[in-house]
Amino acid sequence: MRMSQLFVRTLRDDPNDAEVPSHRLLVRAGYIRRAAPGIYTWLPLGLKVYRNVERIVREEMDAMGAQELQFPALLPKEPYEATNRWEEYGDGIFRVQDRKGADYLLGPTHEEMFTLVVKDLYSSYKDLPVWLYQIQTKYRDEARPRAGLMRGREFVMKDSYSFDVSDEGLDASYNAHRAAYIKTFDRLGFDYVIVKATAGAMGGSKSEEFLAKLDVGEDTFVQCAACDYAANVEAVTVPAPPAQPYDDVPAAHAEETPDTPTIDSLVALLNERYPRDDRPWAAGDTLKNVLVMLKHPDGTKEPLAIGIPGDRDVDQKRLEGQLEPIEVEPMTEEELRSFPDIVKGYIGPGVLGEEKTGIRFVVDPRIVEGTRWVTGADVHNQHAIDMVVGRDFTPDGTIEAANVRDGDACPNCAEGTLASARGIEMGHIFQLGRKYAEALDLKVLDENGKLVTVTMGSYGIGVSRAVPVIAEGNHDELGLCWPREIAPADVHIVAAGKDAALFEAAEKLSGELAAQGIEVIYDDRAGKISPGVKFKDAELIGVPTIVTVGRGLADGVVEVKDRRTGAKQDVAVAEAAAAIAAIIRG
Ligand code: ATP
Ligand code: MG
After folding, report:
1. Residue limits of the Aminoacyl-transfer RNA synthetases class-II family profile domain (predicted)?
2. What is the pTM of this model?
3. Cβ atoms of residues 376 and 266 within 8 Å
């Protein structure tokens, strides 16, 4: 690759739509260009990096024994109707029509197609297990495309699927994928954590995510300080405490609580006017009831009341994670008015519940039988005190919607507490079970000649997302610093000066390295391009080894620099090719 001819224009300034470093640098260094919101073009350097990632993913999938195939991206509607996902995906997919008006979609993920192809070709337990994968472009009309390739509307995913007859077989397939993912992500070279996940729109049971640990990520995960528990915050399940005795709790009573718009003001007033005998009231003694509207995939709406301790908030992502594919919207004033019994600001269990207003009332798992709460009295300016669960009200069920806080007890061990950090999902493995096989009628004959439904696993890797994720962990103030296996080239040679002899030497060195199969970017630009500009470009582009053929040539040496550490050494011109090859081969 000669810089004089390479299709690249580096930029001095950050693009103004880029919020995260990887996005800024990939655009500035000439790896990608935006084509439309969440849709990007790979330029030559970017394509090289992308292909390196793809190659690593493919090698590890092949090594585990999975077989590659490729489906179209343009898919018929019918299989997605059979699994109900045509509807469940809502606005999340791109739908198109052909000239006859028939519906198609651009595949957001391919469970249906894989299930059908196995059904098409296989019929016996002897054919199983089989592991199939593809590396392919997916389309999702993300509500908030962001951070360049990190959350695109067009992106590349490696998706694989396992097909087994037995549950034990599925476990083995799942574990094989887990092991292959560890190898893949170790090679790709970013910091990650494996966390417990919710299964999301796909249903199924056992599910883990591989999150790249990044502050710019949209996922929050928690880890226990004492045990190996790690979970996406969406998947944290709060252990319900045991039921509590309440014989001593006084009968519930409604009291005047004017001017208490916030939990803090309510607690202050309680302590002033209605003090407890044992200790002061705290925010966690209050029960706050939040009303939302659920929007089902078919468009119908339904109200839901969520009760959580007053010292916590509803975590929208946790709530949505529980309810997917149902969407959650705040209740509008107008919707609220259709429930005349509801008194805004003083909503309590007195009116909530399927038996009462018909609004389903679900509560945080900590709100167990015998616990005692201060909550809305369903009368303006009044709260109900000493409301005991099981005595004064009974919720319709529980829901994991309250925010998880640093310091919360670990759900897995007795001693530890949780601490949170941010990440972004790079891979997801989950046991789908028989949901898709049932919906699409994928059965095989077992040993006894009986038809049995196949059980499946589904496993994804964000191949295009890996490029910005790796870039996030491998850059400095000057530009990108790619790991060697990912870099667009092995060495970046800069001819720094005007002298013809210098260009000749650089040209010769490039040729010698290229002859050994080493990928070279050679900055052969002559004329007005100063050495300073060339060095800046080399640092920005981020190839791991930068070689300067410049002033030193008069003394018979070239300079070899490690992009990441900045360490420099002079090497005799005659030995330069061999020495650089040795560095590159480690
Ligand atoms: P996320 O939680 O980030 O939205 P997801 O749960 O929707 O991801 P899956 O359906 O499990 O993702 O897809 C498998 C992998 O594809 C993800 O682990 C992620 O690496 C990648 N991926 C998903 N959505 C996108 C996107 N919009 N842009 C780039 N990569 C994506
Ligand atoms: Mg996922």
Report:
1. 33-483
2. 0.92
3. no
As assigned by CATH, the class of the 253-398 domain is alpha beta
Please write the tens of the pLDDT for every residue from 189-226.
999 999 999 865 455 578 999 999 999 999 999 999 99
pLDDT digits 0-9 by tens, 238-265: 889 999 999 999 999 999 999 998 999 9
Domain boundaries, the chain: 21-236+420-471, 253-398, 491-584
Query: Which CATH number describes the domain made up of 21-236+420-471?
Result: 3.30.930.10
**CATH superfamily, domain at 491-584:** Anticodon-binding domain (3.40.50.800)
Conformational region of residue 392, where left means phi above 0, alpha means psi within -120 to 50, and beta covers everything else: alpha
Atom 2 in ligand 1: which residue has the minimum CA distance? 425
- From CA 452, how far away is CA 167, in angstroms rounded? 12
Asked if residue 304 lies in contact with residue 293, where contact means CB atoms within 8 angstroms, the answer is yes
Atom of ligand 1 nearest to the CA of 142: 27
Q: Give every CB contact of residue 162 below 8 A, 6+ residues apart in sequence.
A: 129, 130, 131, 170, 173, 174, 176, 177, 456, 457, 459
Per-residue pLDDT, 356: 83
